[in-house]
């Protein structure tokens, strides 16, 4: 296995935003692009290579096929149908399960033995599907989960509080979709709990602002889709962040979609919860003592995931 080799399956808007972000950040040494549309993958590889003289490190970038997966450290699947206006992420379920099945078959045939990162929506369910069909270790199959939603939350809070988003420690948990929620009881601006800030009379935000922010974060993808059909830069950077945590063995806390095996009194489901990510994938699921209402929201998200998974022939 090559420690710094990444394969992207699906060179559409999400796949290429991820590739472009990795090129700019010098995240890996070798990057392979695979797509049903081979010509598109070829063109994208040529275009990216033309940016190499401005990139922070040397990279080998080329369009390939599934035989290139064999010695990769990480494969990211970004292939799939997109959410059309008015469609929820769950509407994509059946279309993308079919696509996932065909891709996982090819990856397995290649002899790949690394980390599988899923971005295809509905991502928590597609991660479960990829894990189930692949038979790989549960910790080595990860979904992008609410990494993007947590970044949206950090940005929105940072704007309201006028604090650097990097200093906002706040997480969106549950489904990457309509049933997601903010774990406000664990949200901090620097060292100050957000609840404490919201309760101060002279504060920039109050409790009703928190509800508004949570709604905005949950629904912002619909606004982007209405404006420009799909979302891709944010998820491209979120995938780069997860990839870096894996390749650099960072042990970083990210709200990826992780397999629950007793944590939060749940099992046999992938859902976004804060998890420690390193070279082995998810090293540890962090089991937070959530407030009752937050735990109810997590259980509700999980119930939706399980109900949809039960409709699939996997
Ligand atoms: N996880 C997240 O936070 C997040 C955010 C945004 C989008 N997404 C999802 O990412 C996926 C891709 O979105 P996009 O905007 O890049 O779509 P896109 O239509 O631009 O690209 C999809 C690509 O997948 C390819 N493809 C389809 N079937 C394939 C197969 N069997 N094998 C190989 N390639 C195949 C297509 O040829 C196309 O190039 C969608 O499911 C979308 O909902 C996820």
From TrEMBL:
Domain Lactate/malate dehydrogenase N-terminal as annotated: residue spans: 5-143
Reaction(s) catalysed (UniProt annotation): (S)-lactate + NAD(+) = pyruvate + NADH + H(+)
Gene3D superfamilies: Lactate dehydrogenase/glycoside hydrolase, family 4, C-terminal (3.90.110.10), NAD(P)-binding Rossmann-like Domain (3.40.50.720)
Residues involved in NAD(+) binding: 10-15, 35, 40, 66, 80-81, 96, 102, 119-121, 144
Any one cellular-component term (Gene Ontology): cytoplasm
Matches recorded under CDD domains: HicDH_like (cd05291)
InterPro entries xrefs: L-lactate/malate_DH, L-lactate_DH, L-lactate_DH_AS, Lactate/malate_DH_C, Lactate/malate_DH_N, Lactate_DH/Glyco_Ohase_4_C, NAD(P)-bd_dom_sf
Keywords of the record: Cytoplasm, NAD, Oxidoreductase, Phosphoprotein
Annotated catalytic residues: 176 (proton acceptor)
Primary localization class, coarse: cytoplasm
EC number: 1.1.1.27
Annotated positions of the Phosphotyrosine modification: 222
GO BP terms in the entry: glycolytic process; lactate metabolic process
Pathway per the UniProt entry: Fermentation; pyruvate fermentation to lactate; (S)-lactate from pyruvate: step 1/1
Top-rank taxon, per record: Bacteria
Compartment list: Cytoplasm
Domain Lactate/malate dehydrogenase C-terminal: 146-311
UniProt family annotation: Belongs to the LDH/MDH superfamily. LDH family.
Subunit field text: Homotetramer.
NCBIfam families: L-LDH-NAD, PRK00066.1
Function recorded in the entry: Catalyzes the conversion of lactate to pyruvate.
Protein name stated in the entry: L-lactate dehydrogenase
Species, as recorded: Romboutsia lituseburensis DSM 797
Taxonomic lineage: Bacteria, Bacillati, Bacillota, Clostridia, Peptostreptococcales
């Amino acid at each position: 296995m090559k420690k710094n080799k990444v394969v992207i399956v699906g060179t559409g808007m999400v796949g290429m935003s991820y590739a472009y972000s990795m090129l700019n950040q010098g995240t890996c040494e070798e990057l392979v692009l695979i797509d049903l549309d081979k010509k598109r993958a070829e063109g994208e590889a040529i275009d990216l290579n033309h940016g190499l003289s401005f990139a922070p490190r040397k990279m080998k970038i080329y369009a390939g096929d599934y035989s290139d997966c064999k010695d990769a450290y990480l494969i990211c699947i970004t292939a799939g149908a997109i959410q059309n206006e008015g469609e929820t992420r769950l509407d994509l379920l059946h279309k993308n399960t079919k696509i996932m099945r065909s891709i996982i078959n090819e990856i397995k045939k290649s002899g790949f033995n690394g980390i599988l990162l899923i971005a295809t929506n509905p991502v928590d369910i597609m991660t479960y599907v990829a894990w189930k069909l692949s038979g790989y270790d549960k910790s080595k199959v990860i979904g992008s989960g609410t990494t993007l939603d947590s970044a949206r939350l950090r940005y929105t809070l940072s704007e309201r509080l006028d604090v650097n988003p990097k200093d906002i420690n706040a997480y969106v948990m549950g489904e990457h979709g309509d049933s997601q929620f903010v774990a406000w009881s664990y949200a901090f601006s620097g060292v100050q709990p957000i609840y404490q800030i919201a309760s101060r009379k002279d504060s920039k935000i109050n409790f009703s602002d928190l509800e508004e922010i949570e709604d905005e974060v949950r629904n912002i993808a619909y606004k982007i889709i209405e404006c420009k059909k799909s979302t891709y830069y944010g998820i491209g950077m979120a995938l780069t962040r997860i990839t870096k945590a894996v390749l650099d063995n960072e042990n970083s806390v990210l709200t990826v979609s992780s397999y629950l095996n007793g944590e939060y009194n749940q099992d046999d489901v992938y859902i976004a919860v804060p998890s420690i990510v390193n070279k082995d994938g998810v090293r540890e699921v962090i089991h937070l003592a959530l407030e009752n209402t937050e735990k109810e929201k997590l259980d509700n998200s999980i119930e939706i995931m399980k109900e949809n998974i039960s409709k699939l022939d996997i």
